[in-house]
Amino acid sequence: MRRRRQAVYYRTSAEAAPFGVFNARMTIGGQPIPHSQLRGSELHWRDLAPEYQKSTGLPKTGSLRLLSDGSAVCNQTGVRAARLTDADALAAIARHHEMYPALNVRIASMQEALNSPGLDISTLMAMNPYVQNAQGAWGDAVQAAVRQDLSDIMNSFIPSDMWNLLFPGIPEPTLSGELAIVANSPVTGVSDPKDFYKNLAAAVMTQGMAAGSDPNCRLLNGPRAAAWLQTQLATSAVYNTHGQLLFNYEWQQRFQITAQYLSDQSDDAQYPDRSDRNYKKTYARQIDANVQSSIDDINKKRN
After folding, report:
1. Which of 1, 20, 42, 47 is buried deepest, with most CB atoms within 10 A?
2. Residue where a domain stops, chosen among 51, 82, 106
3. pLDDT: is 132 or 67 the higher one?
4. Per residue in 227-271, pLDDT tens?
């Protein structure tokens, strides 16, 4: 079972209320909107309540297309929505606190925890992603989740004609939730990241079918396809950028207290005099070291 995905927030203007995309649904005020669904890179909804139309700037019925630059555009009105950073999302939620009463309580509780002495180095160093399987072998659970996420993304971009030719009657793989958002996330120097995944389709299919049990595929050159894929992935800005987004996400899903340490580090930057914060420790170097170590390990296994 896949772990729960976190919400990603957008807004149509600085004054508009934020709305989220969570578990392939639109959310407003912390509640899923009926008759809403994320289909690939488009968010569809209908019969949006009048008060939500007014507060968000969205029409009663419509769809948003998620763009490669991180923004979104309404197909019906042309209104653009900006994707919010975590800090901007929290600020927007606080500004429209009457729409998010439960979430504001949680934010206040988290802030109280951040201001307490509960964050310590022992808890930080206990964030160990290595787990043992039923056979007794050890592996990095976060890396495994990221590899599966990236595999799901690559499979989803296999062209329909190729998929239907080889697997007639079997539904094509699609993306939703966080994977759909990451697959459409912008990459510096790349006009459209989706083109990268589309170019991998033939090799992805060849490698997968060659490793299967179908005797008709025994002559497919799976090793050559795998070697070519490794070369493409190792030098791809898209794979690297999206892999880091997924790694950060999967890490924080497994170790949710990480967000508190990161916020604690952000607070420390505003208080350079450590005595003002009761000699509060910073943890950025330790977190960065753990994350970079796991990323390096992924690259070694990939190559």
Report:
1. 20
2. 106
3. 67
4. 999 999 999 999 999 999 999 999 988 888 887 777 766 555 554
Within a domain: 3: no
CA distance 227 to 206: 12
* Confidence grade of residue 301 (pLDDT, cut at 50, 70, 90): low
List the domain range (segments joined by +) for residue 154: 118-303
Summarised one tens digit per residue, pLDDT across range 44-83 is: 999 999 999 999 999 999 999 988 778 899 999 999 999 9
Residues 146, 166 within the same domain: yes
Give the C-alpha separation, 81 to 283, whole Å: 34
Q: Is residue 225 one of the residues assigned to a domain?
A: yes
Only one residue has tokens 């340490």, namely 261
Residue 195, in any domain of the structure: yes
pTM of this prediction exceeds 0.70: no
Q: Is residue 1 part of a domain?
A: no
The Cα–Cα gap between 187 and 238 comes to 6
Around Cβ 241, how many Cβ atoms within 10 Å?
18
Pull the structure tokens for residue 187: 């990459």
Query: Six-digit token pair at 126?
Result: 């206990």
Q: Are 151 and 278 in the same domain? A: yes
Can you tell me the distance from the alpha carbon of 99 to that of 94, in angstroms, rounded to the nearest whole number?
Answer: 9
Q: Is residue 138 exposed (0-12), middle (13-18) or buried (19+ Cβ within 10 Å)?
A: exposed
Q: Which helix (H) or strand (E) holds 115?
A: none
At 218, the pLDDT band (50, 70, 90 cuts) reads confident
How far apart, in whole angstroms, are the C-alpha atoms of residue 78 and residue 246? 30
> 203: how many CB neighbours lie within 10 A of its CB?
19
Q: Is the domain of 293 the same as that of 145?
A: yes
